[in-house]
TrEMBL record:
Domain Ribosome recycling factor: 23-185
Bilayer-spanning residue ranges: none
An example Gene Ontology biological process: cytoplasmic translational termination
Family: Belongs to the RRF family.
Keyword terms of this UniProt record: Cytoplasm, Protein biosynthesis
InterPro entries given in the database record: Ribosome_recyc_fac, Ribosome_recyc_fac_dom, RRF_sf
Localization terms from the record: Cytoplasm
Annotated organism of origin: Boseongicola aestuarii
Role of this protein: Responsible for the release of ribosomes from messenger RNA at the termination of protein biosynthesis. May increase the efficiency of translation by recycling ribosomes from one round of translation to another.
One GO term describing the cellular component: cytosol
Record GO terms (molecular function): ribosomal large subunit binding
Protein's name in the database: Ribosome-recycling factor
Origin superkingdom: Bacteria
Organism lineage string: Bacteria, Pseudomonadati, Pseudomonadota, Alphaproteobacteria, Rhodobacterales
Length: 187
């Protein structure tokens, strides 16, 4: 249809998918009662004068469904890793055994599960807002092209294409949220 118009649907779709990717990363940090090494990704350790991710100061393993172990490479950093985990707000109490730190994942009570589903909903709403902002940018591009001589038929075609991408993005976010909420509420 409008070959001479430079509405980049691939860029719009890529940006919408970026919102979904960011949402999935945020979901990984939510504790679901099962151990996951990704729970520790946001935790930073003050190592050698710089904030460093835990996976760069030790080996993170999940030997059982409700246990994470961290084998700290430098014994001097063990107490700093323990402190970083305690202060992270994950609600996990580390147990230090030499250079190995064990993180037992406690059961979540019903109230905490409901709180986590609300947090997941907030993350999803932020992702929906990001997708809608990308849609707005796409519609603005179409309006500029219309002012530059785009026909009304072409405008409607491009608006429908952008809206279709938006609907798909929102549907993916909703499906991801529903899946995460089921995972959180699972006992």
């Amino acid at each position: 249809m409008a070959d001479d118009i430079d509405i980049d649907l691939d860029d719009i779709e890529r940006r919408m998918d970026g919102a979904l990717t960011a949402l999935r990363q945020e979901f990984l940090t939510l504790r679901t009662g099962r151990a996951s090494a990704s729970m520790l990704e946001p935790v930073m350790v003050d190592a050698y004068g710089a904030l460093t991710p835990i996976n760069q100061v030790g080996t993170v393993n999940v030997p059982e469904p409700r246990m994470i172990t961290i084998n700290v490479w430098d014994k001097a950093l063990t107490s700093k890793v323990e402190k970083a985990i305690r202060e992270s707000g994950l609600g996990i109490n580390p147990v230090v055994d030499g250079t190995i730190i064990r993180l037992p994942i406690p059961e979540l009570n019903e109230e905490r599960r409901r709180e986590l589903t609300k947090v997941a909903g907030t993350y999803a709403e932020n992702a929906r807002i990001a997708v809608r902002n990308v849609r707005k940018d796409g519609m603005d591009q179409i309006k500029k092209a219309k002012a530059g001589g785009m026909s009304e038929d072409d405008q409607k075609f491009w608006e429908a294409a952008v809206q279709e991408l938006t609907d798909k993005g929102i549907a993916k976010i909703d499906a991801s949220l529903e899946s995460k909420q089921e995972e959180i509420m699972q006992v």
